[in-house]
Design brief:
Strand content: 25-35%
Distance between the termini: 135 Å
Number of strands: 7
Order of helices and strands: HEEEEEEE
Radius of gyration: 36 Å
Length: about 160
């Protein structure tokens, strides 16, 4: 009968509370809150001619660490940051197309992100827009092949 008792004890049958073979459960780690910054947007409208503008990046309260986005016609340069809101210089080349164009540029400052949408109007032609370097202005009458009448009525 002693053999039976030995087998019963070695086979377990315990409740696991004081059993040295039951692993202690590891505690579930408490999730740490992630720092969520502000997501801001701004829009800047630029004329069709080549120009530059210094803007204040409203809502950002830290220096711009990096930027992303841009296009061949758009140059964005963050300016030195001392205090207050950071600033950036935005420069565009002339838009000689009739369609407006736009590009998003993202500014990252600490945990905050500001997306600046730069919109540039298109060339209007004539006197209503930017001077097109391919238009040659002259006070001479328009050329007309011989035998045809030009806009001045000359053959």
């Amino acid at each position: 009968m002693a053999a039976f008792a030995c087998v019963s004890i070695s086979c377990g049958g315990g409740d696991g509370q004081n059993d040295p073979y039951t692993p202690t459960p590891t505690p579930t780690p408490t999730p740490q809150p992630t720092i969520k910054g502000k997501h801001l947007t701004m829009t800047l409208d630029m004329p069709a001619e080549a120009s530059e503008n210094v803007i204040t990046l409203k809502g950002l309260s830290d220096a711009v660490s990096r930027t992303s986005g841009g296009a061949s016609w758009l140059i964005v340069t963050p300016l030195s940051y001392v205090s207050g809101a950071p600033q950036a210089k935005v420069a565009v080349t002339a838009n000689l197309q009739s369609e407006a164009r736009q590009q998003d540029v993202s500014f990252f400052a600490a945990a905050d992100t500001l997306v600046l949408t730069v919109r540039q109007s298109g060339y209007k032609g004539g006197d209503g827009g930017v001077d097109n370097p391919y238009d040659i202005h002259t006070d001479q009458p328009a050329y007309a092949p011989s035998g045809q009448v030009n806009s001045t009525g000359v053959k």
